[in-house]
Fold this sequence. Notes:
Layout: H1 5-9, H2 17-31, H3 41-55, H4 58-67, H5 69-75, H6 78-82, H7 88-93, H8 101-109, E1 125-131, H9 133-138, E2 140-151, E3 165-168, E4 177-184, E5 187-194, E6 203-206, E7 217-228, E8 237-240, E9 256-262, E10 269-271, E11 274-282, H10 283-288, E12 290-296, E13 299-305, E14 314-317, E15 333-340, H11 347-359, H12 368-373
Parallel strand pairs: 1-9, 11-15
Antiparallel strand pairs: 2-7, 3-6, 4-5, 8-9, 10-11, 12-13, 14-15
Amino acid sequence: MKKDYYEVLGVSKDASQADIKKAYRRLALKYHPDKSDHPEAEEKFKEISEAYAVLSDDEKRQQYDRFGHAGIDSQYSYQDIFRGADFSDIFRDLGFDFGFSDIFQQFFGGMGRQGGQRRRRGSDILYRMTISLEEAYFGGEKDVSLVRKERCPRCQGSGKTEESTVATCPACQGTGQARKSQRTPFGHFTQITVCPDCKGEGQHIHNPCTACRGSGVVERQRTITVTIPPGVDSGLRLRLPGEGEAGERGAPSGDMFVEVYVEEDPRFRREGSTLYATRHISFPQAALGSRVEVETLNGTEEVRIPPGTQSGDTFTLKGKGMPRLRSGGQGNLVVEVKVDVPRKLSARERELVEQLAREMDVDTRESLGAKLFGRGK
C-alpha cells in the first residue's frame, strides 16, 4: 500500500509550496543515488520524487487531497505524474547544472528504455459521464457507447497486405529511433525518441492496406463498461488503461478517462461524505415528541423527536452519508427539522388552539399600537 505523500515528505497537509520544496530538497540530498550509500536509496529517491511531483502541482495536489491515491492513479499514468514537474533548480543546488525536467520524466516514466522500436501510442479519450447521487452512493457499472479508432481487422493493424512492399527507413536505418546521449545524475543516459520520418516504424510501406490506408486503424462503434466506485464525487477522473484509441500500425492503445459529474438530488445536499436533509414535522410532534421516518439513500431510518423540538434543530445519523472514497467507511446524514404551522384550521382545531393559548396565558389579540410600536413592558 502506498504511503501518504505528505508523510513521505514529512510535511503537514496544509504545508505551503515553499515548505514542500524545502522538504524535498533535503530528502533528495539524503537519498540521491549518486550521493547516498543507503541500500534503498534509489527506491526512496523515486518515492519522494513522486510525492513532490504530485504535491508541487496545484491540480494534482487538489485531486490527491480530495480522493487520495485513487484520485491520482485513476487520472494519471506514472509518466503523467512527472510530466510538467520542474526539478531543475533543485538539482542545480545538488550540483547538476542542466535542464533536467524532461530527462527526469523519462527516467521515472520508463520513456528512456534502450532497445527495440518505440511506436507512438494511440490517443487518450476523455468521456464525461453524468450520474445520479444514488448511483454515486452505491457505485456499480455503466455502459458507455462511443466511436473510437481500433485495430484494422483486414490487416490486423499492420497497415500492409500481401500486395504491399516494405522499404527500410533511411533516416533511422530501420531502428525507428532517434538517439541523443546526455550526462545525467544517474550516469550516462541515452535519450531515445521516435524517428520523425517513419514515426517509429523503421520502414515505409508501398501499396498499403486499402481498408485503413496503411494506418492500421479504423473507426468503430464500441460499448465499454465503466466501473463506478461507491462514493465518487464530481470531478473525479477514472482511468481505463488501454481503452483509448488504437495506435497506428500495431502501436499500443491509449487510455480512456471518464470524468464523473454527480447530479444534484432534490432530497439531499452533499458536502464531501456528509449529506444534509430536511424533515418536516407537525407542531404536536414537535411539542409532544414522536418518532418519524427519515429517507436515506439506502432505505429509511427512524429518528426520535424529543418533546420541545424547535424548528432548525438537527439530528445526526452516523454512517448514513456517502461512502468515503479515500479513507473508507461512510459519512453522516444530518437531518434538520422544520416545524410546520398549518395555514388553515377547522373550527374544532381552532377551538383547541385557542384553549391551549388560554392555558399558556398567551394573548393572541394585538392592538394597532402594539403592531406599530411593539408591546409595552
